[in-house]
Write a structure and sequence with these properties.
The chain has 715 residues and is of the alpha+beta class. Among the domains are: 179 residues, Chondroitinase Ac, Chain A, domain 3 (Sandwich); 212 residues, no CATH class. It has 13 helices and 22 strands. The chain is globular, with a radius of gyration of 37 Å.
Length: 715
């Protein structure tokens, strides 16, 4: 057996291998170092080239910035021009009312509206039909005053005017409700003559476009008759035994308007800031007028002296030349004054627009747990006035006459439950009253509505004292138990459709666009044409709605009010950011973006971008594409991403489907001081012509709708 010996590695061989390994490692390190240095040099070279390109772009932008901003200023002259047209429209409306001489008062003139109120107070013995007929005029006057407060620019409203208008509104509201009570008393005096043969009680139903009235008088006092239903409907009450045997009447007055919720006061901060602007405007105009007057005097003196001198020398001087020179001076001075007025009006309009998107600093504070926060919730469908009255003495026929005892104190409310219940045997003699109401047809509730009652002492809506609420959405009926009668309303979260999921602004024609806002519950399409807006369509999942607003053209402010009253609230307020998680943007950047998007809206479509959330508060990002045809948008359009920070607009190198966000400038493009000049680089000739031919009222309406929806912050 032979053993195989392992050959030993000598020391020299081991040293040689170690040396070879070291040399290999050194070679690899050297190659890596050289490669790294080369890559670093290439990177630095690219950075140098990019930096030089960027510096060239910045230099180019700086060189043309003043020229671009001057051109943009001229284009944005459409906003003060639109404001002047709105002022002219308001004055024309007042003049048309004056020359109509139809007997209706001008609610903005205090003596006229006060005379109307005084004369109506003196009218007596008006039936419910008379009051309902007169209420149409009264509601029209209230609406006019309400719109005056909203449509008048804040810088044009004085504290005195605001108090006058709001005071007139409150007087008209109170008087109208008082007239309904008086007319109800007249009806109840005749209850015995209007008795229903089947039930032995009186029932009266009056339906109108503004009110629905249900009156029931308990004449028979049958303790078994506990269920009151009006006109074979499910609307009515389940009354307790104590009421079934009492000499009472029950009234349900459903006003499709809300005259109970207190008027929102005009913010003092807004008044202060706009008053400063107004004073500034007035002072500047006065200074210009003084300068013009002085200039005219200086121009006229030499002309006059020259005329006298020539006459003394016997030279004939034609008076026409002097008149022409004077006229030229006056026209030049007038043009200077108009130019300054427009400039100041432009600054004022800009300040007023900025106030529309200003966020409040402090959240409203409330005292009770059950109090309804009217900044978070909104009342919809009007107010249901639920009242129990003591039945007044009935009229009696006597010798061909009708004799009736008229109580001096008028119609008296029946207190339920009474302040003291010691005289009653059972503890539960005054249980909550079950009420069934019909929800107004043209109101949309995206969730089951909540019920609130009016607390007259605290002058606020409360949710306590209401139980067993159930809502049948198909029948639009809501049933609940109420501890005490009084005004009740249905409320919904005002921000239920916020934040928005997406939006798109697409041109349909010259001076006509379609704004689409998509929320969790619905998709709303709004057409804007000239100075009018229209609800084009609503898409709801398994929800019925009345198309009462669809197809109706209204001014932007009236349109916004109508949508809110319908429950389609997509318009944030100054306090909305306390109740909605938003993508808050710098107000000045947001304002500039809306104004410039409105300028371009006749020729370019804009849309929501997911990158707008991650780009920061001092930048906005939207999708953009040219759109000149009236055809429906293609399924996958070629959008361009646009970023704007208020002072610089640029196209981005990324798209909506990119995995990561980058602010890198799109290759072979430049940045500009504003959106108009940025799109001018790649827009077609037809697109730019359409933009320049857009009417100022249309641009102003689009801008107002963008400011009201605040799509860049609430999407």
């Amino acid at each position: 057996m032979s053993a195989r010996k392992t050959k030993k590695i000598t020391k020299a061989e081991r040293l040689r291998k170690l040396q070879e390994e070291e040399e290999r490692q050194q070679k690899e390190e050297e190659e890596a170092r050289v490669k790294h240095e080369k890559e670093e040099m290439e990177r630095l070279e690219r950075q140098r080239i990019d930096r030089e390109k960027w510096q060239q772009l910045e230099a180019k932008d700086l060189e043309r910035r003043n020229e671009e901003l001057e051109e943009l200023y001229l284009l944005e002259g459409c906003f003060p021009e639109a404001e002047k047209l709105k002022q002219d429209t308001r004055w024309l409306s007042q003049w048309n009312h004056y020359i109509q001489c139809d007997g209706s008062p001008d609610p903005s003139i205090a003596p006229e509206i006060n005379t109307f109120i005084s004369l109506w107070k003196e009218e007596t013995n008006e039936t419910l039909e008379d009051v309902i007929a007169k209420s149409k005029l009264v509601l029209n006057l209230i609406e006019k005053l309400r719109l005056l407060l909203l449509q008048m620019p804040s810088y044009g409203l004085e504290d005195k005017t605001i108090k006058q208008y709001q005071g007139s509104i409150l007087e008209l509201q109170e008087l109208l409700h008082l007239k309904f009570n008086t007319a109800t008393e007249i009806l109840l005096r005749q209850a015995s003559t209007l008795v229903d043969l089947d039930s032995g009680n009186m029932e009266k139903v009056i339906q109108d476009e503004n009110v629905t009235l249900y009156v029931w008088a308990n004449l028979k006092k049958n303790p078994r008759y506990r269920s009151v239903r009006f006109s074979e409907t499910q609307i009515g009450f389940e009354i307790p035994r104590i009421l079934a045997t009492s000499n009472v009447a029950v009234r349900l007055l459903h006003t499709h308007y809300d005259h109970v919720t207190p008027l929102r006061p005009v913010s003092t901060s807004l008044q202060g800031r706009t008053a400063t602007v107004t004073d500034f405007v007035q002072d500047k105009v006065k200074n210009v007028e003084a300068e013009i007057s002085k200039e005219l005097q200086e121009e006229y003196k030499p002309l006059e002296c020259e005329s006298v001198s020539l006459r003394e020398e016997g030279t004939a001087v034609e008076e026409g030349d002097t008149a022409v020179q004077m006229s030229s001076v006056q026209e030049e001075s007038k043009a200077t004054k108009c130019e300054l007025e427009m400039k100041l009006l432009s600054e004022t309009v800009l300040a007023a627009q900025l106030l529309l998107i200003e966020n409040a600093n402090d959240k409203p504070s409330f005292f009770g747990d059950n109090e309804v926060d009217l900044c978070q919730f909104t009342a919809l469908g009007g107010v249901y006035h639920l009242d129990i009255f003591e039945l007044p003495p009935q009229c009696k026929p006597m010798k061909g006459w009708m004799i009736v005892e008229i109580l001096k104190e008028g119609l008296q409310k029946y207190i339920y439950p009474p302040e003291s219940t010691e005289d009653f045997e059972t503890e539960n003699a005054f249980p909550p009253i079950e009420v069934t109401l019909e929800v107004q047809e043209n109101v949309i509730f995206f969730e089951d509505p909540m019920v609130a009652r009016w607390d007259a002492e605290g002058e606020q809506w409360q949710t306590d004292g209401i139980s067993n609420v159930s809502y049948k959405s198909e029948e639009r009926l809501i049933t609940f138990s109420l501890e005490t009668f009084g005004p009740v309303t249905l409320i919904q979260d005002a921000h239920i459709n916020m934040p928005f999921q997406s939006w798109e602004l697409r041109p349909l024609d010259v001076n006509k666009v379609l704004l689409t806002v998509t929320t969790v519950f619905t998709e709303i399409e709004i057409q804007i044409k000239e100075d009018l807006c229209m609800l084009a369509s609503i898409k709801l999942d398994n929800k019925k709605h009345s198309p009462v607003l669809e197809g109706r053209w209204m001014t932007p402010i009236c349109f916004i009010l109508a949508l809110k009253e319908t429950g389609l609230n997509i318009f944030p307020t100054r306090h909305s950011h306390f109740y909605v998680v938003i993508n808050n943007k710098d107000p000045l950047v947001e304002l500039k973006a809306y104004r410039q998007l409105a300028l371009l809206s006749s020729a370019f479509a804009f849309g929501w971008s997911k990158w707008n959330v991650v780009c920061g508060s001092n930048k906005v990002i939207v999708q953009l594409r040219e759109h000149l045809t009236e055809e429906e948008p293609v399924p996958d359009p070629d959008w361009t991403l646009l970023m704007f920070n208020g002072d610089r607009a640029q196209r981005l190198n990324i798209n909506e489907n990119s995995e990561t966000f980058s602010e890198a400038l799109k290759e072979e493009t430049e940045f500009h001081s504003n959106l108009y000049h940025m799109v001018k680089d790649f827009a077609s000739k037809d697109a730019m012509e359409r933009i320049r031919s857009s009417r100022c009222q249309f641009i102003d309406s689009v801008c107002h709708m963008l400011l009201s929806t605040r799509l860049l912050s609430y999407s």
